[in-house]
C-alpha cells in the first residue's frame, strides 16, 4: 500500500493541502475542530510525514525579505533602517528586493522568496497593483507577511500605516487656512491605499469648507518622474486660478517646485505647496517646504516587530494586529500667508 500523502488527507477531508499541513503543524489560524478532524484521519490512515520535506520546512534561513518599490524615496530608506534594527536584535539578515513600481515584478519576487529564501516578508505594494492573490503562496508555505505604508485591503494580515485620511485632511485644511481657495491635489495612484485615503481626506476638507470638489484638479503623476514637471505645468497653465498644491508624495512636491519656477510663479506668493515628505533637505529648499512627515523609521521598526512576533510565537497575524501611527505637520515658508 503506497504511503498516505497530504493530498490524500486533503481530498478525504475536502480541505486544501495547505490547511491540512497547517493543522498538523498546530498553526493558530486553523480552528481546533479542524485540527482534530485532520489528526484523527491522519492517525486512522497511518499518515507519516515525509522526513526529507519536513527537514526542508524546518530549515530556517535567518533572513527576512523586504519588498519595496524603490530605495531613492527617503521614506523607504528610513523604513529599512527601522527594519534592520529589529532584524539585528533578533540575529537575522535582511534581503531587499525592488519592484520598481511594477506589479509583475512584485509577483516574480514573491515567487522567489516563497521558495525558501526567507522566513518572513515585509512588503509595501507596487503602484497599480490590483489584488493580493500572488501573496497567497506565502501563506500556503507558512511564511508570515506584514504590509507597511502601501497595503492590500483584501489581504487578511497585519499592516503598519500612517493616518493617511487625517493627514490628507490636515494638509488641505492648512492650505485653506493659509488663504487658498483653488487647491490642486497631486496623487501617485488611484488604486494605492495611501492615494485613496489621502484623496478622501482632501475631499472631506473641501466639503467642510464649503468648496466644491473638482475632478479636474486631481492629477495622477507618472511613474516616469521626468514627465511630472510638464504635467503640472500644463495643469497650472490650464487653471491659472490654482493657488495651492497638495502633493501626496515628495517627488510630486519637487516637481511642483520645478513647474512653478519654469512658469515664473512664486512660492508662496502665487502658489502655496505642501507635500508628504521625509526629505531632510525640505527645510533647505527655496522656499522651505511645508511637509506632512511620516514616522518612517517607526513604521519599519513596528512592522518588523510584528513579523518577528509571528515567527517566534508561531501565530498567524490578523488585521486586528495592525497599527496606525501619526504623521506630523511641519509648517514652513512654502505655505506662508502673504496677502
TrEMBL record:
Entries under InterPro entries matching the protein: HTH_LacI, Lambda_DNA-bd_dom_sf, Peripla_BP/Lac1_sug-bd_dom, Peripla_BP_I
Domain of life assignment: Bacteria
Keyword Lipid metabolism found: no
Listed GO MF terms: DNA-binding transcription factor activity; transcription cis-regulatory region binding
Family matches, as CDD domains: HTH_LacI (cd01392), PBP1_LacI_sugar_binding-like (cd06267)
This protein's name: LacI family DNA-binding transcriptional regulator
Cross-referenced Pfam families: LacI, Peripla_BP_1
Alphabetized UniProt keyword annotations: DNA-binding, Transcription, Transcription regulation
Occurrences of domain HTH lacI-type (ranges): 4-58
Amino acid at each position: 500500500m503506497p504511503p498516505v500523502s497530504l493530498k490524500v488527507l486533503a481530498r478525504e477531508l475536502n480541505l486544501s493541502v495547505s490547511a491540512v499541513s497547517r493543522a498538523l503543524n498546530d498553526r493558530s489560524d486553523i480552528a481546533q475542530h479542524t485540527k482534530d478532524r485532520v489528526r484523527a484521519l491522519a492517525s486512522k490512515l497511518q499518515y507519516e510525514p515525509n522526513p526529507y520535506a519536513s527537514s526542508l520546512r524546518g530549515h530556517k534561513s535567518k533572513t527576512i525579505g523586504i519588498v519595496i518599490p524603490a530605495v531613492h524615496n527617503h521614506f523607504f530608506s528610513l523604513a529599512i533602517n527601522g527594519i534592520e534594527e529589529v532584524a539585528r536584535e533578533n540575529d537575522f539578515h535582511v534581503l531587499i528586493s525592488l519592484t520598481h513600481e511594477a506589479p509583475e515584478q512584485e509577483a516574480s519576487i514573491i515567487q522567489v522568496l516563497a521558495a525558501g529564501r526567507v522566513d518572513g516578508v515585509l512588503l509595501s505594494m507596487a503602484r497599480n497593483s490590483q489584488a493580493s492573490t500572488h501573496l497567497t503562496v506565502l501563506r500556503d508555505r507558512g511564511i508570515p507577511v506584514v504590509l507597511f505604508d502601501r497595503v492590500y485591503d483584501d489581504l487578511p494580515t497585519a499592516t503598519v500605516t500612517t493616518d493617511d485620511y487625517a493627514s490628507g485632511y490636515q494638509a488641505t485644511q492648512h492650505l485653506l487656512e493659509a488663504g487658498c481657495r483653488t487647491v490642486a491635489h497631486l496623487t501617485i495612484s488611484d488604486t494605492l491605499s495611501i492615494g485613496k485615503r489621502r484623496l478622501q481626506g482632501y475631499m472631506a476638507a473641501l466639503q467642510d469648507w464649503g468648496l466644491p470638489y473638482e475632478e479636474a484638479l486631481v492629477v495622477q503623476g507618472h511613474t516616469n518622474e521626468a514627465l511630472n514637471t510638464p504635467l503640472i505645468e500644463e495643469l497650472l497653465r490650464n487653471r491659472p486660478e490654482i493657488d495651492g498644491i497638495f502633493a501626496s508624495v515628495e517627488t510630486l512636491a519637487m516637481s511642483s517646485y520645478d513647474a512653478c519656477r519654469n512658469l515664473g510663479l512664486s512660492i508662496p506668493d502665487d502658489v502655496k505647496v505642501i507635500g508628504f515628505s521625509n526629505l531632510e533637505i525640505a527645510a533647505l529648499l527655496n522656499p522651505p517646504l511645508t511637509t506632512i512627515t511620516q514616522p518612517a523609521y517607526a513604521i519599519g521598526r513596528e512592522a518588523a516587530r510584528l513579523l518577528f512576533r509571528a515567527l517566534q510565537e508561531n501565530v498567524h497575524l490578523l488585521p486586528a494586529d495592525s497599527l496606525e501611527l501619526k504623521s506630523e505637520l511641519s509648517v514652513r515658508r512654502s505655505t506662508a500667508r502673504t496677502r
